[in-house]
């Protein structure tokens, strides 16, 4: 942490472009330090700092039916988390699945973003082997099948993947919604 220094606080001139620029550079240095040090990155305080405000705000907006606003909050959160954590980390996959679930709740009204985020989530899950994270994969597939159906896309590959999981002994029917599955994962942390 000694290598990260922030400009001193000042009473007047907080909007000075040089001060803003130096604060941005210092914050970027802090992000890089955290991203490269697993003890810092995986600390509950760091995870909470990077996602709790946005997570609570998105939940509130989803409960109010404001899916486009919730999606914006979650997308912004994803961009930051994706800089600090690996592509397939629990934190990144969790927010990514929340984005897909939120987009899915919109009933297809967010067509462009829905498909983009769902495809990204499916790609990120291709090499996941953590059993906790795999418990989200089946609800993700169900949500994507529903999204593809709403958008009129070919869902054959998704249905085949679900059937492959069924043949391998995974429970694929009567699973929680994607949002409930992600919420369950978060409480197990």
From TrEMBL:
A GO term, aspect molecular function: phosphatidylinositol phosphate binding
UniProt membrane topology term: Peripheral membrane protein
Keyword vocabulary terms for this entry: Endosome, Lipid-binding, Membrane, Protein transport, Transport
GO terms (BP aspect): protein transport
Membrane among keywords: yes
Domain of life: Eukaryota
Gene Ontology CC, one term: early endosome membrane
Location of the protein in the cell: Early endosome membrane
InterPro entries hit by this protein: PX_dom_sf (IPR036871), SNX20/SNX21 (IPR039937)
Main location: membrane
Name of the protein in question: Uncharacterized protein
Organism phylogeny: Eukaryota, Metazoa, Ecdysozoa, Arthropoda, Hexapoda
